[in-house]
Design goal:
This protein has about 200 residues and is an alpha/beta fold. Helices cover about 35% and strands about 25% of the residues.
Length: about 200
């Protein structure tokens, strides 16, 4: 199986790449603006420099992949989301794991950290617009909504789905990586759902 990781040189993309290389036998297509500067092509790695806002470049890069994990975060995320929906549909790739952020549905309780909810944080607007695009698609998507990424334990997390009150606004990198690996290995796990993964800060 070939896994494409968009944003492969970022904090989370790097952590996910390293874990997949160490714990699986998947082929990896590693994509970012500077992927070829960070990764060396090998038997399991294909690194490609790409601007994901360019649909044709994205189409070329994703050809032959089975699962796409998007770990990009910037103002142009809605454009990337639109391109992914169109390109993946045309290439008959259905499984998309799309990283957004907790707070895009105003689901963080005010007593925990209401400042990071969409209604209070303009930086969440592209995250919400992108999530809306993915949710309106026919892809077999899962939207992951972590909080601020920090070091910590793989087991220090709780999941909530869209419509439920989030339990926190901080996530450990190892826990999100481990959850992502489960989603990659099971295409029906949280299929067509939006899931927050955070530390439980209500205890």
């Amino acid at each position: 199986m070939n896994i494409a990781i968009l944003g492969a040189t970022g904090t989370f993309g790097t952590a996910l790449t390293n874990s997949l290389l160490n714990h699986t036998e998947y082929q990896l297509t590693l994509l970012s603006r500077h992927a070829e500067n960070y990764y060396q092509n090998s038997e399991r790695i294909t690194a490609i420099n790409i601007d994901a806002t360019n649909a044709e470049d994205l189409r070329t890069a994703l050809h032959g992949t089975n699962v796409v994990y998007c770990a990009i975060s910037r103002e142009q995320l809605p454009i990337v989301a639109e391109n992914l929906v169109n390109v993946m549909s045309s290439l008959n790739i259905s499984r998309l794991l799309f990283m957004s952020a907790v707070g895009i549905y105003n689901e963080i309780p005010v007593d925990l950290d209401g400042d990071d909810n969409l209604e209070n944080e303009p930086a969440q607007i592209p995250n919400r617009k992108a999530a809306d695009i993915i949710e309106s698609s026919n892809l077999n998507y899962t939207i992951l909504r972590p909080g601020y990424l920090r070091d910590g334990s793989e087991d220090d997390y709780v999941l909530t789905v869209k419509g439920e009150r989030a339990k926190g606004y901080i996530s450990t990198i190892p826990s999100v990586v481990a959850f992502a690996e489960k989603l990659i290995s099971d295409e029906m796990l949280f299929s067509c759902e939006s899931v927050s993964i955070t530390k439980n800060m209500e205890n």
